[in-house]
């Protein structure tokens, strides 16, 4: 249900969409989401390409192939591994420049991975003018969950 606001002249108006705040790779932190960033794809490595188990049943999305690729993406501040799923794999080709909208940080074996779920979007855009800073890979930093007792 969309909310509307009453204007002084009696008309109603829908609230405007928020302008996207573009962030840089170096500012990404564990457990955060809602990131919009422009990155260049450095490489893509398919880690899973699975056919559906039961080809007799045709009940929607589970009848599709499942493919997952780990892609190294970055900007002028650093790099991070991006987990591409299914249709996203085709867009994440090396040398592509993409806009990741509403991206989130997933943790995998103690390190950060960038991902876009069904609430986000990936757009291939014109080639970026920046040089990727490859010596600052945020996915190589290992994090440990520490419980603080007060």
The global form is globular
Structural class: mainly beta
Strand percent estimate: 35-45%
Strand arrangement, largest sheet?
3-4-5-7-6
Order of helices and strands: EEEEEHEEE
Tell me the Rg in angstroms: 19 Å
Quick one: how many beta strands?
8
* Chain-averaged pLDDT: 83
Helix-residue proportion: under 10%
How far apart are the first and last residues' alpha carbons, in Å? 42 Å
Give unreliable regions as ranges. none
Please summarize the sheet with the most strands.
Answer: 5 strands, mixed, barrel
**How large is the count of helical segments?**
1
Write the layout of secondary structure elements.
Elements: E1 5-6, E2 12-13, E3 33-50, E4 66-75, E5 78-85, H1 87-91, E6 97-108, E7 111-115, E8 121-125
How would you portray this structure in words?
By secondary structure, this protein is mainly beta. The chain has one helix and eight strands. The chain has one helix at about 85-90, and strands at about 5, 10-15, 35-50, 65-75, 80-85, 95-110, 110-115, 120-125. The strands form two sheets. It has a five-stranded mixed beta barrel. Strands 1-2 form a two-stranded antiparallel sheet. Strand 6 and strand 7 (about 110-115) form a beta hairpin. The longest helix is centred in the middle third of the chain and has 5 residues, at about 85-90. It starts with a strand and ends in a 25-residue tail after the last strand. About 20% of the residues are buried. The mean pLDDT is about 85.
């Amino acid at each position: 249900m969309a909310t509307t606001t009453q204007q002084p002249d009696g008309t109603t108006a829908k609230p405007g969409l928020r302008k996207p705040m573009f962030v840089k790779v170096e500012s990404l932190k564990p457990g955060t989401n809602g990131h919009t960033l422009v990155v260049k794809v450095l490489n893509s490595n398919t880690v899973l390409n699975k056919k559906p188990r039961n080809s007799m049943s045709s009940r929607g999305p589970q009848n599709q192939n499942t493919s997952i690729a780990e892609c190294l993406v970055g900007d002028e501040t650093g790099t991070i591994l991006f987990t591409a799923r299914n249709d996203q794999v085709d867009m994440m080709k090396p040398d592509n420049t993409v806009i990741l909208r509403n991206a989130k940080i997933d943790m995998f074996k103690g390190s950060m991975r960038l991902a876009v779920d069904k609430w986000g979007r990936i757009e291939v855009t014109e080639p970026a003018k920046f040089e990727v800073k490859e010596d600052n890979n945020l996915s190589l930093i290992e994090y440990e969950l520490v419980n603080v007792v007060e």
